[in-house]
Write a structure and sequence with these properties.
Length: about 450
């Protein structure tokens, strides 16, 4: 590409390869929640649909140009590939180069927006100033009206963060590790206060801006897509319960849009880091995302899902199924009478399907065939619901029996040709013990089907 021709001692394409690769461990790059129409003057627009892809250095398809401004860093965090003590190729974009990449990729329909993070070059203020100048140039000189997500640099001057917030759609400050103890152990140059300070500033700025917009619709928007954060999972010894409790606190105290979890990848040789012979804890990350969803949309609290005596999630069941089989006193739920809050706690019933159930039963008595049409996942819900006092097949409310059927394909209930079976509820059935998972079960766990 002509615009990627050599510029100085290191070509722009070479920088792009280094700095897109350096950004791959930052997963907090969703862009949902922002909508801005083209104004007939500037380039681009922004739609609410989530944009979660990123550009890779080898030229594969992207939706966001996801890069670091620099992989130079004054810090020496033990878990970070870009730490000061690592011997690796270093590169730094100029604001003009980032603008060139963003505009040219947008014109070629490669991207819909920009995700811009950075290592700490010289000091936090110097780095934040570079990020601000880049966004100011994109919005002003180039008239770029597309989506921009930028990282706020902990320790930077609050005024720089404020000015940047009026140019960005979303900002994020990485929590890095779930607890202050973990941060002291693996990132001694970073301090929790410096991380939470910008979070609070952004939250207060968003609130003040919303009040101003209520009075003046044409007021400039401040971080209209909200803020997010990311924490690394598995680098330190926190339990799932500790991590979920921190997440719950962040949502309540800082009104974050998202908390992202990044399974620890051991890229450095350091005695302080876990060996992880089984590879990154991807299944643990997956369970945390599922539990995070329950906190945000289903009315659950962290202490309901886990506690000090049971601090880790079940490997075989998703968190909602696990809660249900441990609280069978709440089931079965009568579909035609249960309030929305209780429907949301039924495995296999999502937020949309629960609302559809509430709306549909105003005009008719619902049966099992209706639930399937409304989006209920019957292979999960069938153990926990009744329609007009009947369960879908002979079963019993017993934990081992339900777990066995939820996790073992061979033991799963076989439905009729029409996918439905209607039988009177019975408390008698041949029981069974929860045995070791089969190879098929393990494959389903890894693939996220459980």
């Amino acid at each position: 590409m002509e615009f990627l021709s050599d510029r100085g001692s290191m070509g722009l394409m070479e920088k792009l390869g280094i700095l897109t690769d350096a950004a791959k461990y930052d997963v907090a790059c969703t862009s949902s929640g922002v909508e801005r129409k083209g104004n007939g003057r500037d380039m681009g627009n922004c739609v609410k649909s989530g944009i979660c892809h990123s550009f890779s250095g080898d030229g594969r398809c992207i939706s966001l140009l996801k890069i670091l401004m620099t992989n130079e860093c004054i810090f020496d965090c033990k878990y970070c590939l870009n730490r000061r003590s690592n011997d690796l190729p270093r590169a730094t974009f100029t604001p003009e180069e980032i603008c060139t990449l963003t505009i040219e990729f947008y014109r070629r329909n490669y991207i819909e927006g920009l995700f811009l993070s950075s290592g700490i070059l010289q000091n936090p203020n110097y780095t934040m100033e570079l990020l601000y100048r880049t966004l100011a140039m994109l919005r002003g000189k180039y008239g770029f009206n597309g989506y921009i997500h930028v990282k706020a640099i902990p320790g930077a001057d609050g005024e720089l963060i404020r000015r940047t917030g009026f140019l960005a759609d979303r900002m994020s400050v990485n929590l890095e590790l779930p607890t202050a103890d973990g941060l002291r152990k693996l990132a001694p140059n970073k301090h929790r206060k410096n991380i939470l300070g910008p979070m609070r500033q952004i939250q207060n700025g968003i609130t003040a801006n919303q009040n101003e917009l209520a009075l003046y619709q044409n007021a400039p928007r401040f971080v209209s897509g909200g803020q997010s954060t990311q924490m690394i999972i598995g680098a330190t010894a926190e339990t799932d319960y500790q991590i979920l409790s921190v997440t719950e606190s962040l949502y309540r105290q800082f009104e974050l849009k998202r908390v992202f979890y990044s399974a620890f990848v051991n890229v450095n040789q350091d005695a302080s880091l876990p060996a992880l012979s089984g590879g990154p804890p991807l299944l643990r990350e997956h369970r945390l995302y599922q539990a995070d969803w329950l906190l945000r949309f289903y009315g659950f609290q962290a202490r309901e899902l886990l506690d000090e005596k049971r601090p880790f999630f079940n490997v075989l069941l998703d968190p909602k199924e696990d809660w249900a089989v441990r609280h069978l006193e709440n089931f079965p739920v009568e579909i035609n009478r249960a309030p929305l809050e209780l429907l949301l706690r039924v495995p296999g019933v999502g937020v949309k399907s629960a609302k559809r159930i509430v709306a549909a039963r105003r005009s008719a008595r619902l049966q099992f065939a209706d639930l399937k049409k409304l989006g209920v996942v019957m292979k999960r819900a069938v153990y926990f619901i009744t329609c007009d006092g009947r369960m879908m097949y002979p079963t019993k409310l017993e934990e081992d029996y339900i777990v066995r059927n939820l996790t073992g394909a061979r033991d799963r209930v076989q439905f009729g040709n029409d996918g439905m079976t209607y039988r009177q509820m019975t408390l008698f059935d041949d029981g069974g013990f929860l045995g070791r998972p089969t190879a098929e079960d393990e494959l389903r766990v890894v693939s996220g089907q459980l």
